[in-house]
Design goal:
Blueprint: H1 3-15, E1 31-33, E2 36-40, E3 45-56, E4 59-70, E5 76-90, E6 96-108, E7 113-126, E8 129-142, E9 147-151, E10 163-166
Length: about 210
């Protein structure tokens, strides 16, 4: 393990709460909007291009292009690219959002793994305010194991650094028995699901 990765693991252990994704998301339908799609029924692959928006429960993925692959039992992988693609997901039982940006974002619903590559950034938002940030060449976030790994270098990069910003935390009152911070009244809701658009054999469709 390099010194850079070791420092990141120590820092994350010190300041990050367990990053547990919203468990209800896995049971939600996948909805996608785009300007255009190409659908390969035999391979169960759909390519979306142009202002792509994917939603699945609290998950929101945006990009210029997205390749969606279907597997049995409704599982999917999605690879979004763009300058820059983005990912958002609510944390289980908390008023917190994981918000990620990169030139390529890979999401695998089977393992609940998110991989951000090239100019990668992940923020943890509480009441829509960033409370910590991580930047690097490649960031991998596993919602099942609740762990991050960060590498300063992306494939093809000759150099790179990992950076972490930890904001000072004000005391917050928890909801009774939950330990979850409660946002002030009027805090904007950051997630808006797209309309459900289903195509044959469960593959999402696009609209203009």
């Amino acid at each position: 393990m390099t010194r850079t990765r070791l420092a990141v693991w120590i820092a994350l252990a010190l300041f990050c709460l367990p990053v547990q994704a919203e468990r209800a998301d896995r049971e939600k339908p996948t909805n996608i909007e785009a300007d255009k799609l190409e659908y390969d029924d035999a391979r169960q692959i759909t390519v979306f291009t142009g202002h792509v928006l994917l939603t699945k429960g609290t998950i929101v993925i945006r990009g210029d292009r997205l390749v969606l692959r279907q597997f049995s039992e409704g599982m999917q992988t999605a690879v979004a690219t763009g300058k820059r693609a983005s990912f958002r997901q609510k944390r289980e039982g908390m008023e917190q959002i994981i918000n990620g940006f990169a030139n390529q974002i890979e999401y695998d619903s089977r393992s609940e793994t998110l991989k951000l590559t090239s100019d990668a950034l992940i923020k943890r938002l509480e009441c829509d305010v960033a409370i910590d940030e991580i930047t690097g060449g490649v960031i991998v976030y596993n919602a099942q194991s609740e762990l991050f790994t960060v590498d300063g270098k992306a494939p093809g990069d000759a150099s790179g650094r990992v950076r972490i910003i930890i904001q000072p935390r004000a005391d917050t009152k928890s909801e009774a028995g939950t330990g979850a911070a409660k946002c002030p009244p009027g805090t904007p809701v950051p997630l808006k699901p797209a309309a459900s658009l289903a195509s044959p054999r469960g593959t999402a469709a696009a609209s203009r």
